[in-house]
Request: fold
Amino acid sequence: MTVAGRQRRESARMQAAELFEQKIKPPEVARRLRVSQKSAYQWHRLWRDGGAQALTSRGPSGSRCRLSPRCLEKLAVYLEQGPAAHGWVEDQVWTAARVATLIGRKFHVSYSVSGATRLMHRLGFSPQVPARRVAERDEQAVTAWKEATWAEVKEPGRPAEATSASRMRQASPAGRPGDAPGADAE
Reply:
């Protein structure tokens, strides 16, 4: 959820607390605040048990980061060094799986591939995207290949009139009964 979304949700909970204090029932609170009745009943139960304080936000949900701020700084340095510096010499691409492995090796903390992806994004990196082009890349050879070879192997696209929005085979107009809709169309 975005920061703005969390703020709107927090505001709605505080408005709900005010309405509950005025003895307004949860279904009416849900209608007024444009939230589900389930949310209104949950908020009412929290409000009843702990007052308006119980409806204040406890921060973003989800598990907390298992790496300290210092370890996150070190990880960013390791990622800047590139995969080759850490044993992946095949290419210069940080995949989420490699980052998860690196975290395990350096910090002895287990991260899933999706968790490593979220951590990379948090640090400003994106998986599977090289930071720069390889030094050995020959731009003239790439251009020549695109113009000559790719043009030959690329399959031509279907003409626009051959497409249909339906997954079914289009029936021919001749096969329609005379009184069916569209029978007179050619």
